[in-house]
Write a structure and sequence with these properties.
Structural class: alpha+beta
Helix content: 10-25%
Shape: globular
């Protein structure tokens, strides 16, 4: 699938496409602007920053194949307003291509990313991992995110397990770090690599999950692996994904967070890991 075939019609007015819209300025530089739709507590939701950086690569006519891996390092808070994206193709081979991407504001770096793209071919295939089991979405009530942070309004969450408990006092006994849910864009939008990159961060920090209360923290590095082909994403359309999030260790101010996103028919579309800084 060529680059122009992956682009979403920006005239659709979907909040994700508006938030990730970039204007080429020449010499590998693009300009964009934050939007309120994906605002978190002190800046844009991390998933939309990841989607912006991937958008720069996806829309570049030099792109080889489709995204395979995305790593984003969040260096500083992003302020409301204009920003610049700087895109550099580092190297390519017959099968893979490596990009460096940087988001800047007022001359300072606020986020960096590395993106690997690749050509997928017919090869040996094996999927030892099995999809999680959860009730049909019709049997799982949607989470009420009204009055919460803006970015939470951009998704529909149907928690089958591990629903977050917002605004409670610390639990006497720590909760599970695992969440299992149906997840989709709000409003509905056909899935592509850009929206998949944003969804990979659409899970609250696992520290908040186990503590049951607010603790200052933020993602400092996020990696997403794209297992899906472009054809699998197209077949998924706007149907909800099955999402799984968990963590393995909280210690000395940092914790990990793992995710999986599954499509219709039990196809693993993406997996990922991030490391989170926290103050308490």
């Amino acid at each position: 699938m060529q680059a122009q075939e992956m682009k979403v019609d920006m005239q659709s007015g979907h909040p994700l496409d508006i938030a990730t819209q970039l204007t080429p300025e020449g010499d590998g530089r693009l300009s964009g602007r934050t939007t309120a739709d994906y605002w978190n507590m002190t800046g844009p939701y991390g998933g939309i920053t990841a989607a912006i950086l991937l958008r720069a690569v996806v829309d570049d006519p030099r792109r080889l194949g489709n995204p395979v891996a995305l790593t984003v390092n969040f260096c500083a808070a992003i302020a409301a307003g204009a920003f610049e994206v700087v895109l550099v193709e580092q190297r390519r081979s017959r099968s893979t291509q490596h990009w460096s991407v940087e988001l800047r504001q007022a001359g300072a770096t606020t986020a960096t990313a590395s993106v690997v793209c690749g050509l997928r071919r017919e090869t040996f295939a094996h999927a030892p991992v099995t999809p999680p089991r959860l009730p049909p979405i019709e049997e799982v009530a949607p989470a009420d995110t009204s009055g919460r942070m803006n970015w939470l309004q951009r998704y529909r969450f149907h928690f089958a397990e591990g629903a977050p408990v917002f605004g409670t006092v610390p639990l006497a006994q720590l909760g599970s770090a695992r969440s299992l849910l149906w997840l989709s864009d709000a409003p509905a939008r056909p899935l592509d690599f850009v929206s998949l990159a944003a969804m990979a961060d659409a899970f609250i920090l696992r520290l908040l999950q186990v503590r049951g209360t607010f603790v200052p923290g933020s993602t400092v590095s996020l990696t997403t692996y794209f297992h899906a082909t472009a054809e699998e994403l197209q077949a998924q359309g706007s149907a909800p994904l099955c999402g799984v999030a968990d963590a393995r260790r909280f210690n000395a101010g940092f914790h990990d967070q793992t995710i999986e996103l599954w499509g219709t028919g039990g196809t693993l579309l993406a997996s990922g890991v991030q490391v989170v800084w926290y103050k308490e």
